[in-house]
Amino acid sequence: MSSDAPSVTSAGDLGYLRDDAALKVRNLTVSFRRGQKIFNAVSDVSFDLARGETLGLVGESGSGKTTIGRAILQLVPAHGADLGGAITYEDDDLATLSRAQMRLMRRRMQMIFQDPVSSFNPRRKVVDIVGEGLEIQGMPRDERRRRVDQALADVGLSRAMVEGRRPYQFSGGQCQRLAIARALALGPDMIVCDEPVASLDVSVQAHVINLLQDIRAARNLALIFISHDLAVVRNVSDRVAVLYMGRMVEIGRADDIYRAPAHPYTRRLLDAIPVPDPARRIPAGEGGAEPHSQLAPPSGCRFRLRCPRADALCAEVEPQLRPMAQGQYAACHHPLPELGQGNSSRPAALSTPA
Amino acid sequence: MSTLEAHPVSAGEKPLAAPRRLRWPRLTLAEAFSFLFLLLLIAGAIFADRIPGLVRPNFPYGDFSRPPEWSINGLFGTDGLGRSIFSRILHGARATLTIVGIATLISLGFGLLLGMLAGYYRGIIERFVDLFANTVAALPPILVILALLTATGPSVTTMTLALGFLEIGTYARIAKGGVISQYDRDYILAARALGASDARILLREILPNLMPTLAALVPPLMAGLIITEGSLSFLGYGIAPPAPSWGGMIADSTDLLSRFPLLIFGPILTIVCTVFALNTVGDYLSRRIDRREKQL
Asked: What CATH fold (topology level) applies to the domain B28-295?
């Protein structure tokens, strides 16, 4: 947005960013104004997404993951919100696109919402909802019909099953499949999935996840998979980004992060994954389970008040993302494990590229 | 309620359960009579000229101030000039319902427009609409219209426009609240993600969801307008005699009231029944909203 927005090619100082990615999010900052108070939902987050790649965004409530998803699709409400940074898709800066250009762009990037029931207008027919994007995009009627049929078939439904029905006549899982069909009908190459299974029964979750995976493979879709459920994210993601209070604290290949998390917060999230073993106790974290107030974040590292490894340095200097020995990037002065080579470097040395 | 069973979701496709319809709530006796009364009133108003045997409203067809009798013209008796009160009520209904209907269309149209824009764009538009609605709500409608009609001369058109204008704020507030309550719903975001314009979102996504609320609120507000219009006609500022009007008929009979109290029976009964029926229908429609919300 601002004139001094970093050009995408200058991303060399953050080694995990790639110049050939389809979606590039650079220094994204989103803050909401409520009267005098300013709430920083997202602070200086950068990442990218290659074609056909799946990136998991994880973090607890209020970590900014949903806001990032909405910001990518330019869905953050205009009043009461400030956006900073740049989002480019296939070298188009989304903020500079005209309305008509953005409407065309929406064919390529779509979204699936958390609550499938509330993401459908209760007073409209399901068939119309699935075809709505095509109608908005001015697709001719026969082409629209063909595409809707194809999208419904992709999610295991058919026109005969949904014709004439309204959203409340479907279960949560069916609604989520219809929501996927609505996104697919436009033929996107990227979909932001905002907690797509969080409101579904566990048995239905697996079905919807598998469906998403199949469609992703068949259509070579890039996905941003937002979830607080690390077990689900691990199954679907190539790479994972961990967010805490609007900041990205760790990003890397899913395998690396799940095998050896570098950030204490990631460790804590992983420890919280339920394991069917009654003898296992979840280690109680220090500093309480609740995040600090986001209206007045703590100085330095935002996680330090809950972090067992925090010291004076963490209170003074906000850690920046830097490469870890395991392969991922983490923003921590005292990353795990203790015996890595990466953790001896001082924050002052961070400016040198990896 | 076997139709309320959860639909099974499985990878292998079973046929979906039969569609579950949103049923309309059962009518109580009072509601059934209210609907019937309103239908008859509207039909009577439209076809008042063509009802066989019914005399013209200004035709002095019999003795003056006769009590009700069992004939079409004498159903409510005759007034001080010997005219059929029943005929005058039906012709008065035509005038009243036209005025109230047009006034409601005016306030509904402008109120929806202003309220939806205020709720959707907030900011300066919302402040302007709030200020307008609150200011107009503070004005006593009868006094304002009296003052206006005194200044410009009695006119049905002026009265209709003024009645409509004074209710714009009421509808604007209802519409604004409805838009704000929907603004953060995911289906609005979804529509925007599909590329829908603001106009499309307002008309296709938000407006249909405002309709049940409006349907429940319009009848009682119309009942209020009927009372206001009746009062103005009673005071001689509305429909000018000798044209028949409900309020005017009550005013005409006040002189003779001590000797012929039955003169005001017809118009009073009609006004009371119409207002009662409209409010009852409003209650029924809001009951339908509650029921829908429970079913959804």
From this structure: MetI-like fold (1.10.3720)
